[in-house]
Amino acid sequence: MAQPSLLEKLEILADAAKYDASCASSGTAKRSSSAGGKGIGSTEGMGICHAYAPDGRCISLLKVLLTNHCVFDCHYCINRKSSNVRRARFTPQEVADLTLSFYRRNYIEGLFLSSGIVKSPDHTMEQLIEVARILREEHDFRGYIHLKTIPEADAELVHQAGLYADRVSINVELPTVAGLTRLAPDKNAGRIEGAMGGLKTAISEGADATKRFKHAPKFAPAGQSTQMIVGADAATDADIVGKASQLYGRFKLRRVYYSAFSPIPDASAVLPLKRPPLIREHRLYQSDWLMRFYGYAPGEVADAAGADGMLPLDIDPKLAWALRFRERFPVDVNRAPREMLLRVPGLGVRAVDRILASRRHRTLRLEDVGRLTVSVAKMRPFIVTADWRPVTLTDRADLRAMLAPKATQLELFAA
C-alpha cells in the first residue's frame, strides 16, 4: 500500500485532532521577540488556539496529532485500535518542519501536539518530546508549544516535556471512575491523577526555582490543563462540576475544558446514539466561570441544577441560582458587599468593580447602573437603587419566563 503524502498526513491528523478542546495558549511566559535575526517565533500577540483544518482555514496554533494509530481501545475515541479509520503517522522531524513552515507563512503562532499511543506510552512520549526538542534546540523556536502528555509514560519523560513546552496537559477523559472504567478500559483514574499531581509539583518547583535563580530552566510556565468529555456516559452536570472543582483544587489547573461527545463511525453499542446539545457544554463553561471568578462553591453551582443534577438549558446557571434563592434578593447596589453583587444576574466582574468605585463618590440610581453595565433588564428584579425597588417583581411566578431569552428562528441567508 502506498504511503500517504505529507499533505495527506496533515489532512488526516489535523482532522483527528479536532476532538481535543484543551488548547488555549493563555498564561504562557513571554520570551524575547525574534526580531533582530535571533531565534524564530514569539509567544507575544493574540494566541487563541484552534486547529489547522483540512479545509484550509488559517488559525493560530497548528493543532495536530503525531499519529492516530493507537494501541488503546477507548470506546468514545475515533482513533481507537478497533476503529476503521485512515491511519497516518508523522515523524518528529516532519512535525517540526511543518510548524516552522506554517510559522514563516504567518499561519500560526505555535504548536499544539497530541498523539495516539503507538508501540508504547514511553515510545510515544519520546517522539512528542523529540518534536519540541528539535524546535527549541535546533531552530531556537520561541513560539508557543503545548504538549499533550501521556499519564502511562515514565514520569521522567513527562518531566522532560515540561522543560520544552509552555503548557502540558493530561486528559482525565471522563468525570467518574465508573465511566472511565466502562468506556476506557486501558486507562486508570489513579494513574492519570498521579501524573497530574507530579506535574503540579514540578510546575511549583520550577516557578520557585526561577524566582531564586536567574538562569533556572522554566518548567511549563503556562501550567497544565485537562479535558472532560460531556455526554458519553451517565454523569450529570453536578458530577462534572464537582469533578472540575476537585481538579482545580488538587492540581492547580489553569483550565478544565469540556468537550461535548460526538458520535463516531462504527460506534460501540455502549455509547449514546446522539450527541448532547452543544448548549450543555456552554452551560458547563459558564458554571466553571462562576466557580473561578465569581466565588461560587461547587455545591452552589449544583444547586442551580434541577433534581436530576442537570443545569437548565434555557437560562444560564447564575440566573438559575438567583431564581432558586430569591430570598437573597433584591441587593442594594449602594451597600451590598462585592461577593453579593457578583451574584446578581447580569452583573459581571468588571461591572461590579465599576459600581464599587462609583458608589464611593455618589449614591447610584438605576440610570447610573445602566451606564456601568451592558443592560439593566435582567438585573432589575434583583437590585435596589436610590430610585428603584422591585417590590413584588422578584417574587413573580412568571419571572423565569420574563427573563429567559426568547427563542428565535435563525435565517440561513440573513445579512
TrEMBL record:
GO terms for molecular function: catalytic activity; iron-sulfur cluster binding; metal ion binding. The keyword Metal-binding applies. SMART domains: Elp3. It holds the Pfam family Radical_SAM. InterPro entries: Aldolase_TIM, DNA_rSAM_put, Elp3/MiaA/NifB-like_rSAM, Endo/Exo/Phosphatase_dom_1, rSAM, rSAM_sf, RuvA_2-like. Its cofactor is [4Fe-4S] cluster. CDD domains: Radical_SAM. It comes from the Bacteria. Residues 60-287 form the Elp3/MiaA/NifB-like radical SAM core domain. Keywords: Iron, Iron-sulfur, Metal-binding, S-adenosyl-L-methionine. NCBIfam families: rSAM_link_UDG (TIGR03916). This is Putative DNA modification/repair radical SAM protein. It comes from Croceibacterium soli. The lineage of its organism: Bacteria, Pseudomonadati, Pseudomonadota, Alphaproteobacteria, Sphingomonadales.
